Amino acid sequence: MSRKPYALLAAAALLPLGAAAQAAAATQPPPAQPAACTYTPAVPADNFKGIPVFDPAKAAKPYRATLRTNQGAITFRALTDKAPCTTYSFKFLAQHAYFNRTHCHRLTTKGIYVLQCGDPTGTGSGGPGYSFPDENLAGATYPAGTVAMANAGPNTNGSQFFFVWKDTKLPPAYTPFGKVTGGLKVLQKIAAGGEDDQNGPGDGFPKLAVNIKRVHIVSR
User: Fold this and answer.
1) Residues 6+ positions from 13 with CB-CB distance below 8 Å
2) Which of 58, 32, 63 has the alpha carbon at shortest distance from 147?
3) Chain segment 17-76, per-residue pLDDT in tens
4) Which residues lie closer than 8 Å to 92 by C-beta, 6 or more apart?
5) What is the C-alpha to C-alpha distance for residues 13 and 5, in angstroms, rounded to an integer?
6) How far apart are CA 165 and CA 130, in angstroms?
7) Are 79 and 171 in contact (CB under 8 A)?
8) DSSP string, the chain
9) Which residue ranges of the chain lie beneath pLDDT 70?
10) Distance, CA of 183 to CA of 191 (rounded, Å)
11) pLDDT of residue 36
12) Which of 82, 163, 173, 194 has its CA 20 to 30 Å from the CA of residue 140?
């Protein structure tokens, strides 16, 4: 079975930026009603850590996540009340060291402004071995500091996510599940370093390599 890139704006292409992003936002149909939280086996299964079993009581507990990177620490508050399926999956992966010794493989600096991470293969097509439904999409916006899921189409969430480092217009198709509370300047420093345009102008691998050493979860 072929791998699908987990991208923004299109499942099979990495390049639609700028005006195309705004056009997509204008024409995006209303988001479907969220499905129940179910983690479904899926390929690929890179660095497989198992498949979580959703526990609503545990999923409701607030937490903060801190990514320790070589460029500095980035902390976000998990939106457990709005995206419990997503935040439960992220915590499961983090607590199983899934993100340790991985790197953020994509930086965009034109039209949309994000740093994409969470792929242990570093190719943009890796995943944890399961998928789960979209949530928290009604009226979703993507201001600076948003943490949201990358995907390969509706309800294909896995391990890849992105930080928004500057206010960005996107269609409400990417589950927002966190808000940066510390380290926005770290993200802006990475963005200021530029990217290599390997996917097209303003879209490529960050020139300042971003290596995730570990992810620390603190319950509140």
Assistant:
1) 7
2) 63
3) 333 344 444 445 544 445 689 999 999 999 999 999 999 999 999 999 999 999 999 999
4) 49, 52
5) 8
6) 28
7) no
8) ------BSS-SS-S---THHHHHHHHHPPPPPPPPP---EEEEEETT--------HHHHTS-EEEEEEETTEEEEEEE-TTT-HHHHHHHHHHHHTTSSTTEE--EEE-SSS-EEEE--TTSSS---EEEEB---S-TT--B-TTEEEE-BSSTT-B-S-EEEESS-B---S-S-EEEEEEE-HHHHHHHHHT-B--TTBTTEE-BSS--EEEEEEEEE-
9) 1-35
10) 13
11) 87
12) 194
Spell out the residues 6+ positions from residue 29 whose beta carbon is closer than 8 angstroms to its own.
none
The residue written with tokens 């699908």 in the block is 4
Cα–Cα distance for residue pair 80/61, rounded to 1 Å: 7
| Residue 164 token pair | 């928004």
Looking at residue 10, its pLDDT comes to 35
Amino acid in position 180: V
